[in-house]
Amino acid sequence: MVNAPDINGLRADLEAEALRLGFAALGIAPAAEDARAAGRLADWLAGGNHGAMGWMADREHHRRSPQGLWPDARSVIALGMSYAPAGDPLALANAGERARISTYAQGADYHDVVKKAEKALARWLVEQAKKRGLGDIGVKVFVDTAPVMEKPLGMAAGLGWQGKHTNLVSRSHGSWLFLGAIYTTLDFAPDAPGRDRCGNCHACQDACPTQAFPAPYRLDARRCISYLTIEHKGPIPEEFRRAMGNRIYGCDDCLAVCPWNKFASEAQRLRAFLPRAELAAPRLAELLALDDAGFRRLFSGSPIKRIGRNSFIRNCLIAAGNSGDQALLAQAQALQADPDPVVAEAATWAARQIMQA
Predict the structure, then answer these.
(1) Of 124-133, 259-268, 316-325, where does mean pLDDT reach its minimum?
(2) Catalytic residue list contains 144
(3) Coil, strand or helix: which one is 308?
(4) How does pLDDT run across 80-106, given as a tens digit for each residue?
(5) How far apart, in whole angstroms, are the C-alpha atoms of residue 281 and residue 357?
(6) What is the DSSP track for 173-232?
(7) What are the angstrom distances between the C-alpha of 13 and each of 17, 27, 128, 181?
């Protein structure tokens, strides 16, 4: 154990540096396994709730705890970056000719923005530890691309708690935090964990259009619109198509209705996460016209780019079918000849729905 006053002083300066770099929240969690979180993960996977996300089960042994991934880790620096929206994320619910893109994906790719800031903070920490006589330390940074349980770690570090929608809820930032983690060999004193403050509220459960919550605090990804529009690689199951409405990438419903959002301030959101004008309320007709090159141009620097043109057009066709907009019929019919069979099937469905409207 290093000298306590030195590491405590470093901890205070670390938080100040994190705020300077654009983070809105920081907390420290132990790197050892949290038996409750690990048990919930095992039960969730055993129930098949991860759908086709096989990588979650394949690396469960790493995901269970920070030390399972990196045995030398002693502390986790849990970080949150705000993307609180200025307006109502549900405002376009009845605008059938428009597409709804999840708030988090309307600006810059959070993977890039958060990781850049994390790397800067990690470099600062390494330099400061050496300057303060704490020796050479190890650090590893993670943003949603490694077997890391960011939400339970955020709760363990006191950033908030996992709400009934399974996402992290903060008393200061509501449900609008991007999460990241820095694992380190420094043995910081952990912060007090977050306390569940959902109480009797079940707004997020009631808001889900596909009943993706079999119970509070448990998500069945196979029914979740975010999973279906982003991770799912085949035809959208017909039982969920109507419920998708005009959502073409992700879904904000369970997050948007959380009453703790009233404490979130858009002033704490980074400029990088401001919505791009062309993504705030795009017309379905313009999106359906995208070929692969056009898709890549439009979504350069966006998290949407990773799902590829075919899955994206599939989603837009479901929205077109739900719109009943006769102006979209010709585009749906033309896409029935698309070389991708998933797109062609979605186009056939959309054309049929529009003609029956």
Answers:
(1) 259-268
(2) yes
(3) helix
(4) 999 999 999 999 999 999 999 999 999
(5) 23
(6) TBT-EEEEEEEESS-PPPPPPP----TT--HHHHH-TT---SBTTB--GGG-HHIIIII-
(7) 6, 13, 9, 17
What whole-number distance in Å separates Cα of residue 19 and Cα of residue 277? 27
> 86 Cβ partners below 8 Å, 6+ apart?
266
Residue extents of the structural domains in the chain: 4-86+107-184, 207-254+276-356
Report the predicted TM-score, pTM, of the whole model to 2 decimal places.
0.95
Q: Which residue type occupies 159?
A: L
Is 248 in a helix, a strand, or coil? strand
Tokens of 317: 């066709």
Q: Which of 13, 109, 112, 144 is catalytic?
A: 144
The encoded tokens of residue 320 equal 């077109």
Query: How many angstroms separate the most distant Cα atoms in the chain?
Result: 73
What is the DSSP secondary structure assignment for residue 279, as one 8-state letter? H
What amino acid occupies position 104?
Answer: Y
